[in-house]
Write a structure and sequence with these properties.
The protein is of the alpha/beta class. Helix content is about 45%, strand content about 20%.
Length: about 200
C-alpha cells in the first residue's frame, strides 16, 4: 500500500500556521491534521480533541515515561507532544499528515523520521507579527513580549527546514503549501506504488 507523507509545519506564534493548515485540509483531499497533546489551558473557542488533547501535567509525563510521543517539548511553560498512535496509522493508510509543532519538536521528528518534510512559516516582519499577536486579544503584555523574544530564536531555525513560506497573503501562502503537498504525491516512489506500471518501466 502507498504510504502517506508526514509534513511538519513550524512557525512563531502568530504567524498563521494553524490557519494555513486548516485551509489546506479544507481544500486538499486526503490530508489530515494530527491533534497534539498539551498541558496548557484551552483558549476561547478551542475544543478538546479537536484543537488539542488537553491533559494535566501528570498525565502528560506518564505518556512521556511510556514512550508514547513521537516528539514532545516544553514551550512557554507548557508541554506539547505528538502521540505516535495518532500519526503512524494515518501515514500507513496512505494519508498525508500535518504536524503543527514548534522547532524543538520538528528536530525530534527529523531524527526519528528522516523522510518527514519540514516547512517553516514566516511572517512578513516582526512588526506585523507583533500586530497579529495583539489583535488576537488572548495574551497579556508580558506573554506577548515573551512570544516576540522566542520568535526571533525560532525564525533563526528556518534555514534548516526543507521549505519556507512567507505568510504575507493568505491565499498565496495556502497555494504554496498545497503545491508542496501535491508535488510530493508525484514522486517516483509514490506514483509507482499507486499504479502498476511494470509494462512501462522496470523496477
Amino acid at each position: 500500500m502507498e504510504r502517506g507523507d508526514l509534513f511538519v509545519i513550524s512557525a512563531p506564534s502568530g504567524a498563521g500556521k494553524s490557519t494555513l493548515c486548516h485551509r489546506l485540509i479544507e481544500e486538499t483531499p486526503n490530508v489530515g491534521l494530527s491533534v497534539s497533546h498539551t498541558t496548557r489551558s484551552p483558549r476561547r473557542g478551542e475544543v478538546d480533541g479537536v484543537d488539542y488533547h488537553f491533559v494535566s501535567k501528570e498525565e502528560f509525563m506518564n505518556m512521556v515515561d511510556q514512550g508514547e510521543f513521537l516528539e514532545w517539548a516544553k514551550v512557554h511553560d507548557n508541554f506539547y507532544g505528538t502521540s505516535r498512535l495518532s500519526v503512524m496509522p494515518m501515514i500507513e493508510a496512505g494519508q498525508e499528515v500535518l504536524l503543527d509543532i514548534d522547532v524543538q519538536g520538528a528536530m525530534q521528528v527529523r531524527k526519528s523520521i528522516p523522510e518527514a518534510i519540514l516547512i517553516f512559516i514566516l511572517p512578513p516582519s516582526l512588526e506585523i507579527l507583533e500586530q497579529r499577536l495583539r489583535n488576537r486579544g488572548t495574551d497579556s503584555e508580558e506573554t506577548i513580549k515573551l512570544r516576540l523574544k522566542n520568535a526571533r530564536s525560532e525564525m533563526a531555525a528556518a534555514p534548516s527546514y526543507d521549505y519556507i513560506i512567507i505568510n504575507d497573503d493568505l491565499i498565496r501562502a495556502v497555494g504554496d503549501l498545497q503545491s508542496i503537498v501535491l508535488a510530493r504525491r508525484c514522486t517516483a516512489s509514490r506514483v509507482l506504488a499507486r499504479h502498476d506500471l511494470s509494462h512501462i518501466v522496470s523496477a
